[in-house]
């Protein structure tokens, strides 16, 4: 049985639930999509990008490939196009499993649809435009679900949310929320100490 069967079933059955951390998007919100791409292996790998340090928003942060939708483009097309433009992903190697509920991201002004997909195994990917993507990460679920990796991320002003700390990498914000949901509905989450807090390092905190 595929390691992704639990996640696929949850997406099909609509059991994920609303992603309401930041409230409801306004009617005129801009649309965007991100790609949550996992390998179909015994220990799936998840694709992330490190955003370039010179970007105007979310510079240096760890994120899923994605961005704003073009006119007339659906969420799947947006997510796959952005992944091709950012890291050279060939959409022909990818099977879309479904979508998580849309989520409103006030800091960027986008209503984001997470598109979940699989491919057979890790294949080499690299930044297409270094001015947009500084690095490509493919991290194993065993690393991401390790209780020693999981922390509650905090920032000045009172924000608290799921976080993942892996060596020099720190995942927080919307990406961490989506990763947290994915691990949970797929049945990969392991008990972790939510009282263990860590401030987001300045390197990953730039707006």
Describe this structure in words.
This protein is of the alpha+beta class. The protein is 19% helix and 32% strand. The strands form 3 sheets. Strands 1, 4, 5, 6 and 7 form a 5-stranded mixed sheet that branches. A 4-stranded mixed sheet has the order 11-10-9-12.
User: What is the residue-averaged pLDDT?
Assistant: 89
- The outline comes out as globular
Which percent range describes the beta-strand content?
25-35%
Helix content: 10-25%
Major β-sheet profile: 5 strands, mixed
Summarize the structure in short.
With 207 residues, this protein is an alpha+beta fold. It has four helices and twelve strands. The strands form three sheets. Strands 1, 4, 5, 6 and 7 form a five-stranded mixed beta sheet that branches. It has a four-stranded mixed beta sheet with strand order 11-10-9-12. A three-stranded antiparallel beta sheet has the order 3-2-8.
Strand-helix topology:
Layout: H1 5-13, E1 30-39, E2 45-51, E3 62-63, E4 66-68, H2 75-87, E5 95-99, E6 103-105, E7 110-119, E8 133-140, H3 141-144, E9 150-154, E10 160-166, E11 169-171, H4 173-186, E12 197-199
Parallel strand pairs: 1-7, 9-12
Antiparallel strand pairs: 1-4, 2-3, 2-8, 5-7, 6-7, 9-10, 10-11
Helix pairs in contact: 1-4
């Amino acid at each position: 049985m595929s390691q992704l069967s639990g996640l696929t079933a949850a997406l099909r059955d609509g059991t994920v639930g609303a992603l309401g951390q930041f409230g409801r998007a306004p009617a005129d919100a801009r649309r965007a999509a991100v790609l949550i791409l996992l390998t179909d292996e015994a220990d799936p790998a998840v694709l992330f990008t490190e955003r370039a340090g010179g970007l105007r928003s979310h510079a240096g942060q760890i994120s899923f490939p994605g961005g704003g939708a073009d006119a007339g483009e659906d969420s799947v097309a947006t997510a796959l196009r952005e992944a091709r433009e950012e890291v050279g992903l060939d959409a022909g190697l990818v099977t879309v499993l479904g979508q998580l509920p849309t989520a409103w991201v006030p800091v960027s002004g986008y209503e984001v649809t997470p598109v979940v997909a699989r491919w057979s195994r890790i294949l080499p990917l690299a930044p297409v435009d270094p001015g947009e993507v500084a690095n490509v990460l493919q991290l194993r679920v065993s690393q991401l679900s390790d209780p020693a990796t999981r922390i509650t991320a905090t920032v000045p002003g009172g924000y608290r949310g799921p976080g993942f700390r892996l060596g020099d990498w720190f995942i927080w914000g919307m990406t961490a929320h989506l990763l947290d949901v994915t691990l949970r509905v797929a049945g990969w989450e392991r008990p972790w100490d939510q009282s263990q807090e860590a401030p987001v390092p300045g390197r990953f905190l730039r707006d």
